[in-house]
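Inputs:
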Amino acid sequence: MNGRVLDVIGTLARLGLAAVWLISGGIKAADSGQTYVAVRAYDVLPLDAVGPVAAVLPWLELALGLLLLVGLGVRAVAVVSAILLLVFIAGLVQAWVRGLAIDCGCFGGGGAVDPDATAYGLELLRDAGFLALAVWLVARPRTLAALDGILMGRTAT
Amino acid sequence: MSGGERNAKRRQQAEREARLAAAGIRVPQSSMQKNRLPMIAAGVVIALVVIVAGGWYYLSTRPATPTFTATASGAVVTAGTGPVVIDVYEDFLCPGCLALEKRDGNKIISALNDGKLTVKYHMLGLLDARTKPAGYSTRAADASLCAAAAGIYGTYHQKLFSVQPAENSAGLTDDQLVSYGTELGAGGDFATCVKGTTHDSAIKKETDAADSSDALKNQGAFGTPTVAKDGKRIDINTSGWLDTVLAGG
C-alpha cells in the first residue's frame, strides 16, 4: 500500500476518533449530574473521587477531540486516547464480571439498568473499535490536513 | 530491527542528507522524533484543560448551605416560603434523584434561601424493592421527615444524597441514618423517630397516590425524580427549567 493511501486511512481514523470524543464529551459536559451517576455506577472509585472525575472527564474528552480535529500532536493525543479507552474497557469488564447491571454511559445516559437490559458485549466491541483507531494513529500518526504537518515543515495537503 | 540494522539505516540516512546538502538541497526537518513541538503543544492543552476543569469543579461545587425552614406534614416536607411553589417527588435510593441533586441541588437551595421558591418534597418509598433487605427507601424517607421535625431537613437531605447507597445493596442502616442526623445537630427524640415507623403509613399513602396520578406520568409511568407545578409534571431535562419556573413560566 502506498503512503498516500495510508495517509488517507490515518486521516479517516483521526477524524473518526475526533468525532467520538467530541460527541461523547459534549453530551457528558451538558449533563453533569448524569455523568456523576454514570461514573459512580461503575462502583470503582470512592465517593469522594467520583465528583472530580465526573467533572474533568467530559472536558478531557472534548480536548482530545479538538486536538485530533485540528491534528495537533496526533501521536501523543492518540496515546492518551488509547489509555482512556483501556480504562473504560477495564471499567466495563469489571462491571460485567461482578454482575453489575449498568449502562456504560459512553454517550450520555449511564447508571443502573435492569439486569436484562445490559449490553456489555456491544459496548466492549464498540470501545475496541475506537481503540483500533487510536492504535493506528499511535503507530502511524501522519495524516492529511493536520497542524502537525504544517508545524513540522511538511506541506499541508 | 536489531541495533546493528538501525545504526546502518541511520548512517545511510545521514549519508543521503549529506549528499543532498552538498548538492545545495535543504532537507526539511520531517522526522517525528526530531520535532517535538506539536507533542508538547498537545500535552500543554490537555494538562491545562484538566487543571482548569478540576479547579472549576472545586470552586463551583461546594454545597450551598441551606438556611431555609422546613415543616413536615404527613409524608410531605414544605421547604422555604417563596411565592413560586413546586412539588418534588423523590426517593433517596433513586440515581436520577441524585443526578438532579448534583446538577440543580445548589440552585434549588439558593432559591429557597432567598425566599424565591417553596418546594413541597414528597418523600417516597417507590424503590423499596431495590434493596436487600427491602425497604431502604421508606426508612430514608422516614428519617428525612424526622429530620424536618428536628430542624435539619436541608442539610440532612444533602447528606443522604451525598452518601446514597447503590441499588441492590442493603442501604444505610438505621444507626447510620441516626448518626448522620446527630452530626448535623438533631437532638431530642430524633433517634427514636428514625428507628420507629411513625411515618411509614403516610409514606406508603403518598407513594401510592403519586404512582397512580395521571398528571405526574411520563410516557405512561410514574418515576422519580418528578417535578410538578400546579399539580402537573414539568420537564426537568432541559437545563434552565428552574430559571423558567422562577421567572413565572
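Helices of chain A lie at 3-30, 32-41, 47-70, 74-97, 120-139, 147-151. Flag for discussion at group meeting.
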